[in-house]
Description:
Blueprint: H1 2-9, H2 18-47, H3 72-86, H4 91-123, H5 140-147
Amino acid sequence: MLADLLYYFFPYQIFKSVVFRGSLTFLTIYFMINLILPSAIRLFRQKGITSDFKKAGAAEGPYDGATPIMGGIVLIPTIIIAIFLWAWINQFTIALLIIISSFALIGFLDDLAKVIHKKRVEAGKDVQKAYADKADGIRGDVRLVLSL
């Protein structure tokens, strides 16, 4: 509750404004993502946390190579931190955090299944389907049931 702390030291009405708090929440998330995500992408590519079966060649630029997955590992904590810094914590905020966390858990399990499937295919323990150039995650019907 950084906005409440700022209001305590500087009693200006702007610190109580929803627009101000929402804007600072967005800016906090934006700058945290821009600081953390590039190094996380490099780390994910080095560790092979991608769903692509093809080997990534020498990347010339920051956007070259296999597309990494599990970006929610960086995104979701930054959203939660920014919400706790700037938003009012009430039943709606708690409901939002529960919903975001539950969908993040489904996405994490799906990405983890993709990484495990890719590692099993690379180790020769599983067969790559002829039509697939990316690893399989959780089946669609299971994801639908989990999201309901």
